[in-house]
Amino acid sequence: MRRPRRAKILATIGPASGTADMVEALFLAGADAFRLNFSHGSWDEHAARYAAIREVEKRHGHPIAVIADLQGPKLRVGHLTGGAVDLKEGARFRLDLDETIGDEKRAPLPHPEIFKAISEGATLLLDDGRIRLKVLSSDESHAETEVVVGGRLSDHKGVNVPHVELPLAALSPKDRRDLDYAVDLGVDWLALSFVQRPEDVAEAKKLAQGRGAVMAKMEKPAAIARLDEILEHADGLMVARGDLGVEMSPEEVPSLQKQMVRAARQAGKPVVVATQMLESMVSSPSPTRAEASDVATAVYDGADALMLSAESAVGAYPRETVAMMDRIITRVESDPLHRRFLDAEMTAPEGTAADAIMAGARQVARTIRAAAIVCYSTAGSTALRAVRERPEAPILGLMPDPAVCRRMVLSWGISPVDSEDAKDFDDMVARACRVAYWRGFADSGQRVVITAGVPFGTRGATNLLHIAWVGEYQDRRADNRPQRDGPAVE
To answer: Which CATH number is 132's domain given?
Structure first.
């Protein structure tokens, strides 16, 4: 099964899409990967959804990436009289550690870390930024504030502290339990919320112990300031525009999105653009024109994947939303301007043999109009170098590890296949041509560009580039293929 587009679709699974039939419907509509949101749902629900995803993967012989999105520490006010109070602009409002039920003059805020970090002049945002407070004075147990933007404040609404690095770990005790459960379940990626510093990512990777790749969610201004350091530690990046837009002015988010996509592309790591991409389709069968343009912008920028949240998790039209995103991406990628934009942001190859080979493969494939670039990659690093080149030819990644195949699904333009490593040069050529034909990437008489490493099976030893003609392989039925070159994942 071959997708006609290069950018991938990541769909969130929730109450509207958690059944086995709906998971398959979303996959057939275009979803390449699925997100399990650990902010909601029980472990049993996540396990059932994970099993449904793997059943679809097995049935269609196509690798599917599964992301566990960890909740992160949640900062919330406590209980209020009657469940909600009205805060009026210009009024004084106190936040403190006292657990007594709050009213229109004060509210409990059981987070001493906030009081330790803020000072006079700091801004506090309540209820996703709908209410704005200015700190007049504070100590380690309370803060006196002025209501700058008022509104109705309900029990347990969230609190954001923009432009302040809080002394909080990105992994709460709940997150640590969820992380262990998720990697034991078999997820491929862990999305780490509330990242503020590179040490947060390093801690998650230490806990994961290689059992899942770690994606840093960029939703805090403090993280933006240390973007390069975080990228150095993370395996991928998520532009979490929802929370980022709460703590920053809306006009800042588009340029930050472009900055993060560009930085991830230069680092050769997958970047996902997320939140509110087709938000109106939660309740409508079609998006707004502005939403279609928003999706198109991320594709023109060269993002690896685009994410659907509530649209596919709780919306009324999950399958239609995935299909709409698929159509938008496909249309944008057919635009000649798309290639011009990708080429304009090309990153110069590093001074390594592997980078030189992959840059050469891109150029050779363009010159001879190759049907595909077939890339042998043991751990995925060579495949990521191929992806970073954003070639015109599709990339077919042959990998001996199903876990690596699944992780690579999120990367731009690559179709990973679980295949044994080549035994010798002749086997390398024959296997590459055979898989390219069976997967529908090349027809008899077309050429493919092959990259590999000698000695075969050596990690990070990409040093070979070869052009091969595809022969005739008449039978494309899955049951007649060699065991590991047919179904993408065993």
So the answer is: 2.40.33.10
Q: Which of 5, 6, 8, 35 is catalytic?
A: 35
Confidence tier at 489 by pLDDT (50, 70, 90): very low
Q: Is residue 347 part of a domain?
A: no
* Cis before 162? omega within 30: no
8 A C-beta contact, residue 410 and residue 189: yes
Give the pLDDT score at 192: 97
**Catalytic site residue 217?**
yes
208, pLDDT greater than 60: yes
Which CATH number is 431's domain given? 3.40.1380.20
Catalytic residue, chosen from 76, 130, 134, 226, is 76
Q: What domain count does the chain have?
A: 3
Active-site annotation holder among 5, 106, 132, 217: 217
- 387 or 349, which is more confident: 387
How confident is the prediction for the chain on average, in pLDDT? 92
Answer yes or no: are the C-beta atoms of 365 and 449 closer than 8 Å.
yes
User: Is 35 annotated as catalytic?
Assistant: yes
Residues in CB range of 200: below 8 A, 6 or more apart: 169, 170, 171, 192, 194, 216
Residues 242 and 216 in one domain: yes
Residues belonging to the chain: 490
Active-site residue identified among 123, 275, 382, 462: 275
Tell me which residue range forms the domain holding 467: 353-480
Has 3 been annotated as catalytic? no
pLDDT, tens only, 317-347: 999 999 999 999 999 999 999 999 999 988 8
Query: Which CATH number do you get for residue 270?
Result: 3.20.20.60
Q: How far is it between the farthest Cα atoms of the chain?
A: 79
pLDDT in tens, 91-119: 999 999 999 999 999 999 999 999 999 99
Task: Identify the domain boundary among 300, 334, 368.
Answer: 334
